[in-house]
Amino acid sequence: MDMKEKTVVTGVIGADAHAVGNKIIAFALSEAGYKVVNLGVMVSQEEYIEAAIETNADAILISSLYGHGEIDCQGFREKCDEAGLKGIPILAGGNLVVGKQNFEDVEARFMKMGFTRVYPPGTPIETTIAALDEILGVERS
Which residues are catalytic? Predict the structure, then answer.
């Protein structure tokens, strides 16, 4: 499949206004050949879902830096399923919880919520791109 056909919806969920990282992520995904639909900051679950449906997206990437990502992501998989996006890969990363928590615990809670991959703060975007390639079956020469 042609790389250009792979569309990802990205943005910063909830009341989070951290814009810089979001722009860097969108740029890196674009440079890696993905078609990026960047919703910017303070994105609701519904906005991610509407954008994914409208653009026939292959995956959704959620960023959160202000620590409320876990709360903001509650029920997201179920809403995706109900909207006809059953099985769409959902990746989340950043400061997803308040305070110092063991990342394995945070990851387990997100996986239980139906997320495909979850990343701790400071994860290089290359890690996410490699995971997306793997999940979406993208072959790089």
Answer: 16, 18
pLDDT at 4: 59
Predicted TM-score of the model (pTM): 0.95
H-helix or E-strand spanning residue 59? strand 59-64
Determine the length of the chain: 141
Task: Name the β-bridge partners of 57.
Answer: none
Which one, of 113, 91, 108, 117, lies nearest residue 9 by Cα? Answer: 91
Cβ(51)–Cβ(39) below 8 Å: yes
pLDDT of residue 81: 98
CA dihedral 12, 14, 18, 23 (to 10 degrees): 20
Backbone angles phi, psi at 59, to 5 degrees: -160, 160
